[in-house]
Amino acid sequence: MIPKDHLFDFMLIHADTSLIISQRLSEWCGHGPVLEQDMAMTNLALDHIGRARLLYQYASELENAGRSEDELAFLRDELDYKNLLLAEYPNTDFAFTVTRQFFLDAFYIDLLDKLSGSADSRLAHIANKSLKETQYHYKWSSDWMIRLGDGTEISHEKVQNAVDRLWEYTGEIFQPAECELGMMEAGVAPSYEELSDSWHQRVNSVLAEATLKKPQSTWQQKGGKTGHHTEHLGYLLAEMQYMQRAYPGLDW
Amino acid sequence: MTIEELERKFQDRIDAEEKIEAKDWMPEEYRKTLIRQISQHAHSEVVGMLPEGNWVTRAPNLKRKAILLAKIQDEAGHGLYLYSAAETLGVERDSLIDDLHSGKAKYSSIFNYPAISWADMGAIGWLVDGAAIMNQVALCRTSYGPYARAMVRICKEESFHQRQGYDILLSLSRGNAAQKRMCQDAINRWWWPSLMMFGPNDAHSPHSAQSMKWKIKRVSNDELRQRFVDMTVPQCEILGMKLPDDKLKWNPERGHYDFGEIDWSEFNNVLKGNGPCNKERLADRLNAHLDGAWVREAAMAHSEKRARRTA
Ligand SMILES: [Fe+2]
Ligand SMILES: [Fe+2]
Known about the structure:
The structure holds two protein chains of two kinds. Chain A is an all-alpha fold. Chain A has helices at residues 4-26, 35-63, 69-74, 85-88, 94-115, 121-149, 153-166, 178-185, 192-209, 232-240, 242-246. The N and C termini of chain A lie far apart (38 Å). The model of chain A has no long low-confidence stretch (mean pLDDT 96). Chain B is mainly α. Helices cover 69% and strands 2% of the residues of chain B. Chain B is built from 13 helices and two strands, in the order ααααααααααββααα. A two-stranded antiparallel ribbon of chain B has the order 1-2. The relative contact order of chain B is 0.11. At the A-B interface, helix 1, helix 2, helix 3, helix 6 and helix 7 of A face helix 3, helix 4, helix 7, helix 12 and helix 13 of B. Bound molecules: fe (ii) ion (2 copies).
């Protein structure tokens, strides 16, 4: 058995990451580069919010303190959000959005695959459902990496710039937090070393096909999993939490 | 066959309730009317994503956020079906979109009103989608086959949109004073613009007669508007809210609700570009299009490269 608080924290890392990336993607609503991609990004946002809900609901039951999915999603302080820094990075432009998505999908596609065979049956169930979505997301984001990288000179430059800029937020993914170490030991979560290897393989092959260069720099930011975020998150939360903060305790 | 004979045969088919298909002969004016109407309809779906997109990042809870996202995604899908239906008439989506951006093509004026509170997500679903359904249900029987079929698909989703909007207002109407206030305020602001969605009174509707003869349009503006009012008033009573019209009253002789006169000068002004959000909406669409140009070019360049490699 793994300690409940490890499981709870683990749910929050991924619930928060899903929620925050969903929030970012939904900012595109009505402003996509072409109607089909507007729809695709709305669809991604929708899948991620669905996933966030399943994870928060499970977290809420694990915590067993009467906090609902909405209280977990909307009424915590910034310090308590555990999402990956990558998820909160602003949309910037379509190249950044695609790159951010690709880096995340290349991780989740393997994590979810492993978790769908997890000893925790509830988690396995959620992972199994999410995996099917992520396979589609990964297809979308890796296809666009290749299209943009191997498209025009301008698109190549833009997506290379996004890769270079976002690179420093990718290392954090594989730096296990305490709860993740606990989960690994209990055999509920897979080894992050293995996940990291497989992520690098995916990234290498997609970047190569996209004619993009893998960044050389090795310095990596961290802090998301322990609640120390970039300056961007505060604004995102201010907007996202607005109704719950302005009108506490109501039904909508 | 002479043009007159062709036109007579065409009208005979219409009168016999036959659907006109893309490859069939049709009068030039029929084609033009349809292109104008279908593209305007498509643009409305797309511009309509903006006021709702304005609240998706601030939706009050996860469930509402998910439902709103799903709705906006549907609207994008409606835009796609309708652009495809228009393309069957021999126009390209790009040129239709250029006409939107240049101001040559219109979209529904309703989306030139601002969505300023969460309750507006309810009022838009209930009243705006509700009014749209009235129109669209009638259009399921329109004479042009591809348009009619697009409408059948769209109508299925629209009734879900209306219900979710009403459900938002229902929650607010059972809430605290602040929620009730935002609910009533949204209804006050959206009621008259929703009635305007049906267009000018029949006596002043310039294209209507010919459109009715061709069965592009099957029910008149005023009749649709009346149906909408009759449907909406009892729903508003359940909410315990007031519709902002002192003249609104059941008329037992007519078997319909009487209602007050629409402010047509407001209608005409919004149509002319003077609504609260005309400039923002168009600028948003135009900027999205311009900002996305490099993405569309990249996709094109890449698929050309691929084709060359496999050739
Ligand atoms: Fe629609
Ligand atoms: Fe709708």
